[in-house]
Amino acid sequence: MTQKTLIGPFKQILTMQNLPVKGSIKDEALEIIENGAILIEDEKIHSLLTEEQFQTERKNYKKKRGDNIFFEITKDSILIPGFIDSHTHMCYAGSRADDYARRIAGESYLEIAKKGGGILSTVKCTREATNKELMQLLFERGLHHLKRGITTCEVKSGYGLDLENELKMLRVIKQAKESRYLIPDLVSTCLAAHVKPKEFESHEDYLDFIVKEILPKIIEEGLSKRVDIFIEEGAFDSEMSLKFLEQAKALGFEITVHADQFSTGGAKVAAKVGAISADHLEASQEEDIIAMKEGNVIATVLPGASMGLGVGYAPARKILDNGLCLVIASDWNPGSAPMGDLLIQAAVLGANQKLSIAETLSAITNRAALALNLNDRGELSEGKLADMLAFPCSKYQEIFYNQGILRPSLIWKQGTRII
Asked: Which of 33, 103, 112, 371 makes an SS bond possible with 13, Cβ 3.0 to 4.6 Å?
């Protein structure tokens, strides 16, 4: 039976509608409804109401009358779409606190990896973890993310690096996605091409193994529609990565790429193969940005990795000024980005790169939805999923002015209030 819920009044509603999907955005472009409300029908947004429309509509509602519910907002609140985190590594076991201590003592990320730390140390722990243990860890992190306002997030494999354990990770993500637990909606990505495991002598042999053995099983079980690869020194070079991604694309996978984190080359591969997004981009130069623009690639920047590694941020301002679609994601992982707090990272990056609030907010809502190829969320408009956050303030600027420590006081996921 259809249920309608009227929620309001909100001091401001930021719809994130009618914004450009590429390039810079002025705050003046934000569509704001003052003292309005929202009407939800089951899981989706039925309509947005102006102040006058809301005052008329509320007369037809009592707190509970039949199947109609009125949820009155009694304090100043700003309503925005739920956050979308388009790049995470949240499914893992173990800790890399020792790696962190070594990094801040002067060793580089690549030096630590060569000495047995880094990604392969997480692979060891993840392989040893049971399905139940991985599931519990993913649920805990998912709930933590949800409380921070993330209603949808991507989760990668990549800490298995063999058939059994890559499938184990993706099965856990799928099971979590299909559960009724309070976690964000999950989008899985196969990152079996994270680094070469010790069991293989050559990088080419391992990538061939992924194409012939792992990807067909993923298709057979419906575990993921997306494939990623880490293009970097110590991982996979541009030439072999391009061949691998072309093979994955031919199998029907959407493509995303770990690109230009420490050195360039990955962004150009992303452009050549027609990837949806190139992620990281800390090392990207003008020519890499131009290549991504020509290839219609979304530029996803990961400030959490810059904060965790103590390196410079990706050139987000330059990316926008060159007319690209900019997305901000947390990169939550046990090595370079253990904080996983998307709002803090976005606020800090915005201050560093002189991004408008509209640009920053768009990068974690409507534009982030594009990076996951989702057209049913990311803005507040008729027919979209009712994934929404209410912040306890009177002006939207306060959300980022407080640099991430102002948290949502109310959260709705698919029309149901969960916090």
From this structure: 33
* Residue 405: CB atoms within 10 Å: 9
Average pLDDT, the chain: 96
How many residues does the structure list for the chain? 419
DSSP E strand boundaries for 106-184: 150-156
DSSP string, 63-76: SEETTEEEEE--S-
Beta bridge partners of 230: 258
Q: Where are the beta strands (DSSP E) in 194-348?
A: 226-229, 254-259, 277-280, 298-301, 326-328
Torsion angles phi and psi, residue 161, rounded to 5:
60, 20
DSSP 82: P
Q: In the prediction, which pLDDT does 1 show?
A: 66
Helix (H) or strand (E) holding 359: helix 357-362
Domains recognised in the chain with CATH numbers:
4-81+379-417 (2.30.40.10), 83-371 (3.20.20.140)
Give residue for tokens 């790696």. Answer: 99
With contact defined as beta carbons under 8 Å apart, do 126 and 134 qualify? yes
290 φ/ψ angles, rounded to the nearest 5 degrees: -65, -40
Band of the pLDDT at 114, cuts 50, 70, 90? confident
Q: CA-CA distance, 2 to 5, in Å (whole number)?
A: 10
What is d(CA 74, CA 135) in angstroms, rounded to the nearest whole number?
38
Cβ-based neighbour number of residue 325 at 10 Å:
24
User: Which pTM does this prediction carry?
Assistant: 0.97
- Under a CB-based contact definition with an 8 Å cutoff, are residues 119 and 195 in contact? yes
What pLDDT score does 66 carry? 61
The residue behind tokens 């790429």 is: 257
